[in-house]
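Regression test case RT-17, inverse folding.

Input:
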C-alpha cells in the first residue's frame, strides 16, 4: 500500500511516500517539498492545489497529515497561513483516498516510549525503520507520520 505523509507549514508542504513492510519498517519511495509560489497567496494556493491534485492522484491509497496544533499559538499569522495551506492540501486529495490526521502531542503519548522530537533526532532509529529512497533530515517528521499511521 502506497501512503503519502505530509507536514504543512505556512509556505511549504513536505511529502514523504512509502510502503509498509511486514517487519514494521517503511520503504521510502519519495521525499519531496512543494514550496508555495511567491506573490499573491490566493493565486499561489491555486497553483499548489493543481500540483498536489496531480501528485496525489497517482496510485496513493492513504494520506497522513500532521494535524493542526491550535492552542495558544492559533492566532499567530504563520499558524493561520499553515492552516490555510493545510486546507488546500486536504481539498486536493482525490475522492476514495483515506485521510488520517495525527497531532504531534498525541503521537508523543501514544507512539513508543519517547516524545516525537526525541525520535526525530535519532539517526539510528531512522536507519532501522526506513529503507529505499534517501530521507532528508528536514523530512523526518513527515516520515515519522508514516510509521505512526500504520495500523
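Golden output:
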Amino acid at each position: 500500500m502506497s501512503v503519502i505523509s505530509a507536514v504543512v507549514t505556512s509556505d511549504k508542504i513536505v511529502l514523504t511516500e512509502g510502503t509498509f513492510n511486514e517487519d514494521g519498517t517503511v520503504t521510502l519511495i519519495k521525499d519531496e517539498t512543494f514550496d508555495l509560489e511567491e506573490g499573491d497567496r490566493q493565486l499561489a494556493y491555486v497553483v499548489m492545489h493543481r500540483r498536489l491534485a496531480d501528485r496525489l492522484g497517482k496510485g496513493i491509497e492513504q494520506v497522513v497529515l500532521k494535524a493542526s496544533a491550535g492552542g495558544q499559538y492559533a492566532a499567530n499569522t504563520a499558524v493561520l497561513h499553515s492552516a490555510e495551506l493545510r486546507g488546500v492540501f486536504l481539498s486536493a486529495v482525490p475522492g476514495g483516498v483515506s485521510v488520517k490526521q495525527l497531532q504531534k502531542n498525541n503521537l508523543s503519548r501514544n507512539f513508543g516510549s519517547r516524545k516525537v522530537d526525541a525520535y526525530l533526532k535519532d539517526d539510528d532509529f531512522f536507519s532501522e525503520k526506513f529503507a529505499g529512497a534517501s530521507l532528508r533530515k528536514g523530512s523526518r517528521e513527515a516520515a515519522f507520520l508514516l510509521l505512526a499511521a500504520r495500523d
